[in-house]
Give the backbone structure.
Amino acid sequence: MITKGSPAPNITFRGTDGVDVSLNSFRPDKVVLFTYGADGTPTCTNEIMDFNALHEQFVAAGCVVVGLSKDSVKKHQSFSAAKGIKFLLASDFGGTQMQDLGTFGEKLFFGKLVQGVLRTTFLIDGDGVVAEIWKVDKVKGHAQAVLDAVLRTTIK
């Protein structure tokens, strides 16, 4: 289980460009890593578009944004091109990255217990330590709250 203050696991995923990249490769930049269900679904699209709208501010704060789902690289590429996504959408191509992050498991979906993605956002500092964790129930305002936390860590 990942907790605030613990080292982030050095997961490897395949990016929109088809290249495998590890989480540690972004150091010394901060990383916002968020897990979500699928490209093109209403709530996930809203979350992605909110992060996309703030992308330049994240970059200015020395932060890389990565969205991780079980979608294929090809689906990420199509979605990114259609929506003008400016940051990396990553594929959990092996099916284990979300398990390692603790973001896949049982959840309630329309009153029924199912296995699925547990929408979660991690802020990882430049040393690879988890600075913040959000279990996300509502996406409205979430990207801004994450940016505010990034900016607070930049000022310190």
In short: The mean pLDDT is 91. The helical segments are 42-53, 55-60, 73-83, 97-101, 142-155. The longest helix spans residues 142-155. DSSP finds five helices and nine strands in the chain.
